[in-house]
């Protein structure tokens, strides 16, 4: 079952299967390449492709007071696009996993958790982190339900203003579990 299908049927999933779905989503995330390993591989690739020019850029970067995000302008756009894609992938996985854990918690206790920390360790191994801010996902109970989201690629908390799939690529708005299907 694909991620989009999981999102569509999320409110019809048999509760007994939720723990195994959460475990599988966690396993998928742990098995993927991390940003750290991607950056290391990108650095090795730049060294191989550009040699002394890349090393000169590293020295320039180290000595410069204006610290650009990446050293080599020839590859920085590709690196940034790939890092953003990894973060989008991770945030959507974490939103789905957290949504399921919240519903599982609600089925066990008859109420929504007061905070995401209430899900740890019984429902989730740790509080899910928004990869764009390195802070916990935003969660609040609201009008008998809840709001769960990440700030998205612009790094700005828009207070739960959600857009559509185009917003996943930097035009603003927060990410919720339905953003890719709008």
UniProtKB/TrEMBL annotation:
Going by the entry's taxonomy, the superkingdom of the source organism is recorded as: Bacteria
Q: What is this protein called?
A: Type II secretion system protein GspG C-terminal domain-containing protein
